[in-house]
Sequence to fold (228 residues):
Amino acid sequence: QQQVKQSPQSLIVQKGGISIINCAYENTAFDYFPWYQQFPGKGPALLIAIRPDVSEKKEGRFTISFNKSAKQFSLHIMDSQPGDSATYFCAASWGGGADGLTFGKGTHLIIQP
Amino acid sequence: DAGVTQSPTHLIKTRGQHVTLRCSPISGHKSVSWYQQVLGQGPQFIFQYYEKEERGRGNFPDRFSARQFPNYSSELNVNALLLGDSALYLCASSLDRGGRVDTQYFGPGTRLTVL
Fold:
Protein backbone atom coordinates (compact mmCIF):
# COMPACT_ATOMS: atom_id res chain seq x y z
CA GLN A 1 0.00 0.00 0.00
CA GLN A 2 1.12 3.52 -0.67
CA GLN A 3 2.11 5.50 2.37
CA VAL A 4 0.42 8.40 4.03
CA LYS A 5 2.94 10.33 6.15
CA GLN A 6 1.58 12.23 9.15
CA SER A 7 3.22 14.84 11.35
CA PRO A 8 3.81 15.74 14.09
CA GLN A 9 3.79 12.52 16.10
CA SER A 10 2.67 14.44 19.18
CA LEU A 11 1.38 17.96 19.76
CA ILE A 12 0.66 20.07 22.83
CA VAL A 13 -1.62 23.10 22.41
CA GLN A 14 -3.01 25.55 24.92
CA LYS A 15 -6.77 25.73 25.41
CA GLY A 16 -8.27 28.10 22.87
CA GLY A 17 -5.38 27.73 20.46
CA ILE A 18 -5.25 26.26 16.95
CA SER A 19 -4.11 22.65 16.51
CA ILE A 20 -2.61 21.83 13.11
CA ILE A 21 -1.82 18.30 11.89
CA ASN A 22 -0.30 17.63 8.49
CA CYS A 23 -0.33 14.69 6.09
CA ALA A 24 1.39 13.97 2.79
CA TYR A 25 0.61 11.21 0.35
CA GLU A 26 2.34 9.55 -2.59
CA ASN A 27 -0.38 7.85 -4.59
CA THR A 28 -1.94 10.36 -6.99
CA ALA A 29 -4.88 7.99 -7.45
CA PHE A 30 -6.10 8.75 -3.92
CA ASP A 31 -9.42 10.60 -4.18
CA TYR A 32 -10.88 10.57 -0.68
CA PHE A 33 -9.19 11.98 2.42
CA PRO A 34 -10.86 11.54 5.84
CA TRP A 35 -9.69 12.44 9.31
CA TYR A 36 -10.47 10.24 12.30
CA GLN A 37 -10.38 10.90 16.04
CA GLN A 38 -9.63 8.06 18.43
CA PHE A 39 -9.87 8.00 22.22
CA PRO A 40 -8.07 5.30 24.25
CA GLY A 41 -9.87 1.97 24.11
CA LYS A 42 -12.28 3.16 21.39
CA GLY A 43 -12.55 2.76 17.64
CA PRO A 44 -11.73 5.67 15.31
CA ALA A 45 -14.58 8.15 14.77
CA LEU A 46 -14.96 9.99 11.47
CA LEU A 47 -14.47 13.74 11.95
CA ILE A 48 -14.44 15.28 8.51
CA ALA A 49 -13.49 14.25 4.98
CA ILE A 50 -12.61 15.93 1.69
CA ARG A 51 -12.34 15.02 -1.98
CA PRO A 52 -9.72 16.64 -4.24
CA ASP A 53 -12.20 18.77 -6.18
CA VAL A 54 -12.20 21.32 -3.33
CA SER A 55 -9.31 22.99 -1.48
CA GLU A 56 -10.98 23.48 1.87
CA LYS A 57 -13.85 22.08 3.91
CA LYS A 58 -15.07 23.36 7.25
CA GLU A 59 -17.35 21.68 9.77
CA GLY A 60 -17.71 23.53 13.04
CA ARG A 61 -14.27 23.97 14.61
CA PHE A 62 -12.66 21.48 12.21
CA THR A 63 -11.22 22.48 8.82
CA ILE A 64 -9.43 20.40 6.19
CA SER A 65 -7.08 22.21 3.83
CA PHE A 66 -6.11 20.31 0.70
CA ASN A 67 -3.23 21.04 -1.70
CA LYS A 68 -3.46 18.69 -4.67
CA SER A 69 -0.28 19.87 -6.40
CA ALA A 70 1.79 19.40 -3.24
CA LYS A 71 -0.03 16.15 -2.37
CA GLN A 72 -0.65 17.42 1.14
CA PHE A 73 -3.64 17.94 3.38
CA SER A 74 -4.03 19.19 6.90
CA LEU A 75 -6.49 19.33 9.78
CA HIS A 76 -7.00 22.56 11.69
CA ILE A 77 -8.84 22.50 15.03
CA MET A 78 -9.89 26.00 16.02
CA ASP A 79 -10.48 27.04 19.65
CA SER A 80 -8.99 23.74 20.84
CA GLN A 81 -10.57 22.32 24.01
CA PRO A 82 -9.35 19.76 26.57
CA GLY A 83 -12.02 17.36 25.25
CA ASP A 84 -10.21 17.40 21.91
CA SER A 85 -7.28 15.57 23.52
CA ALA A 86 -7.08 12.33 21.54
CA THR A 87 -5.14 10.63 18.76
CA TYR A 88 -5.91 11.89 15.25
CA PHE A 89 -5.38 9.90 12.08
CA CYS A 90 -5.40 11.05 8.50
CA ALA A 91 -6.29 8.49 5.86
CA ALA A 92 -6.77 8.14 2.12
CA SER A 93 -8.46 5.81 -0.34
CA TRP A 94 -8.97 5.51 -4.08
CA GLY A 95 -11.27 4.01 -6.63
CA GLY A 96 -14.32 3.83 -4.40
CA GLY A 97 -12.51 2.38 -1.43
CA ALA A 98 -12.44 -1.34 -2.22
CA ASP A 99 -8.78 -1.46 -1.20
CA GLY A 100 -9.62 0.08 2.14
CA LEU A 101 -8.28 3.17 3.84
CA THR A 102 -4.54 3.82 4.12
CA PHE A 103 -3.86 5.49 7.47
CA GLY A 104 -1.11 7.72 8.76
CA LYS A 105 0.64 6.75 11.98
CA GLY A 106 -1.36 9.18 14.10
CA THR A 107 -0.84 12.36 16.10
CA HIS A 108 -1.28 12.34 19.87
CA LEU A 109 -2.85 15.72 20.68
CA ILE A 110 -2.92 17.15 24.20
CA ILE A 111 -4.84 20.33 24.94
CA GLN A 112 -3.61 21.97 28.11
CA PRO A 113 -6.22 23.86 30.22
CA ASP B 1 -29.62 3.85 15.56
CA ALA B 2 -26.99 1.38 16.73
CA GLY B 3 -23.49 1.79 15.39
CA VAL B 4 -21.11 -0.97 14.36
CA THR B 5 -20.96 -3.66 17.03
CA GLN B 6 -18.13 -6.13 17.60
CA SER B 7 -17.70 -9.17 19.82
CA PRO B 8 -15.99 -10.14 21.96
CA THR B 9 -14.54 -6.98 23.51
CA HIS B 10 -11.39 -8.67 24.71
CA LEU B 11 -9.84 -12.03 23.98
CA ILE B 12 -6.75 -13.84 25.23
CA LYS B 13 -5.32 -16.74 23.21
CA THR B 14 -2.08 -18.69 23.12
CA ARG B 15 0.26 -19.13 20.19
CA GLY B 16 -0.94 -21.63 17.60
CA GLN B 17 -4.61 -21.28 18.50
CA HIS B 18 -7.41 -20.09 16.24
CA VAL B 19 -9.69 -17.09 16.84
CA THR B 20 -12.99 -15.85 15.39
CA LEU B 21 -14.05 -12.22 15.70
CA ARG B 22 -17.53 -10.99 14.86
CA CYS B 23 -18.98 -7.76 13.52
CA SER B 24 -22.46 -6.40 12.85
CA PRO B 25 -22.62 -3.37 10.54
CA ILE B 26 -24.82 -0.32 10.82
CA SER B 27 -28.34 -1.12 9.67
CA GLY B 28 -28.59 -0.67 5.91
CA HIS B 29 -24.83 -0.90 5.33
CA LYS B 30 -23.85 -3.72 3.00
CA SER B 31 -20.06 -3.39 3.11
CA VAL B 32 -17.81 -4.49 5.96
CA SER B 33 -14.06 -3.95 6.23
CA TRP B 34 -11.58 -5.33 8.74
CA TYR B 35 -8.48 -3.54 10.05
CA GLN B 36 -5.66 -4.45 12.43
CA GLN B 37 -4.35 -1.72 14.73
CA VAL B 38 -1.12 -2.44 16.54
CA LEU B 39 -0.48 -0.30 19.61
CA GLY B 40 0.81 3.12 18.64
CA GLN B 41 0.09 2.71 14.92
CA GLY B 42 -2.69 3.53 12.49
CA PRO B 43 -5.16 0.84 11.43
CA GLN B 44 -4.02 -1.43 8.61
CA PHE B 45 -6.49 -2.79 6.06
CA ILE B 46 -7.08 -6.55 6.06
CA PHE B 47 -10.27 -7.27 4.05
CA GLN B 48 -13.34 -5.68 2.56
CA TYR B 49 -16.57 -7.55 1.84
CA TYR B 50 -19.54 -6.29 -0.12
CA GLU B 51 -22.72 -8.26 -0.71
CA LYS B 52 -21.00 -11.37 0.69
CA GLU B 53 -18.13 -11.20 -1.80
CA GLU B 54 -14.50 -10.32 -1.05
CA ARG B 55 -13.87 -7.00 -2.71
CA GLY B 56 -10.42 -6.10 -1.45
CA ARG B 57 -7.57 -7.65 0.47
CA GLY B 58 -4.60 -6.07 2.23
CA ASN B 59 -1.11 -7.45 2.68
CA PHE B 60 -1.84 -10.10 5.28
CA PRO B 61 -0.91 -13.82 5.27
CA ASP B 62 -3.35 -16.60 4.37
CA ARG B 63 -3.79 -17.32 8.09
CA PHE B 64 -6.29 -14.45 7.97
CA SER B 65 -9.67 -15.12 6.39
CA ALA B 66 -13.13 -13.61 6.56
CA ARG B 67 -16.64 -14.04 5.36
CA GLN B 68 -19.88 -12.07 5.22
CA PHE B 69 -23.29 -13.50 5.91
CA PRO B 70 -26.67 -12.82 4.20
CA ASN B 71 -27.58 -10.37 7.01
CA TYR B 72 -24.30 -8.49 6.20
CA SER B 73 -22.62 -9.38 9.50
CA SER B 74 -19.08 -10.65 9.19
CA GLU B 75 -16.48 -12.88 10.80
CA LEU B 76 -12.71 -12.54 10.79
CA ASN B 77 -10.78 -15.75 11.39
CA VAL B 78 -7.11 -16.00 12.25
CA ASN B 79 -5.38 -19.38 12.34
CA ALA B 80 -2.08 -20.42 13.93
CA LEU B 81 -1.87 -17.30 16.06
CA LEU B 82 1.48 -15.58 16.49
CA LEU B 83 2.58 -13.17 19.21
CA GLY B 84 2.63 -10.45 16.56
CA ASP B 85 -1.12 -10.89 15.96
CA SER B 86 -1.78 -9.14 19.28
CA ALA B 87 -3.67 -5.99 18.31
CA LEU B 88 -6.98 -4.16 18.26
CA TYR B 89 -9.10 -5.60 15.43
CA LEU B 90 -11.49 -3.06 14.00
CA CYS B 91 -14.54 -3.57 11.87
CA ALA B 92 -15.92 -0.75 9.72
CA SER B 93 -19.14 -0.58 7.77
CA SER B 94 -20.00 1.47 4.71
CA LEU B 95 -23.14 2.46 2.84
CA ASP B 96 -22.63 1.85 -0.85
CA ARG B 97 -23.11 5.12 -2.73
CA GLY B 98 -22.95 4.39 -6.43
CA GLY B 99 -20.20 1.86 -5.89
CA ARG B 100 -18.23 3.97 -3.39
CA VAL B 101 -17.67 2.54 0.06
CA ASP B 102 -14.86 4.80 1.22
CA THR B 103 -16.84 6.55 3.99
CA GLN B 104 -16.30 4.02 6.74
CA TYR B 105 -17.68 3.95 10.27
CA PHE B 106 -15.72 1.97 12.83
CA GLY B 107 -16.80 -0.21 15.69
CA PRO B 108 -15.13 -0.23 19.12
CA GLY B 109 -12.84 -3.11 18.20
CA THR B 110 -11.81 -6.43 19.72
CA ARG B 111 -8.60 -6.41 21.73
CA LEU B 112 -6.75 -9.67 21.01
CA THR B 113 -3.82 -10.68 23.17
CA VAL B 114 -1.70 -13.66 22.12
CA LEU B 115 0.47 -15.20 24.85
Summary: The longest strand of chain A covers residues 19-25. Chain A touches chain B through 26 residues (CB under 8 Å).
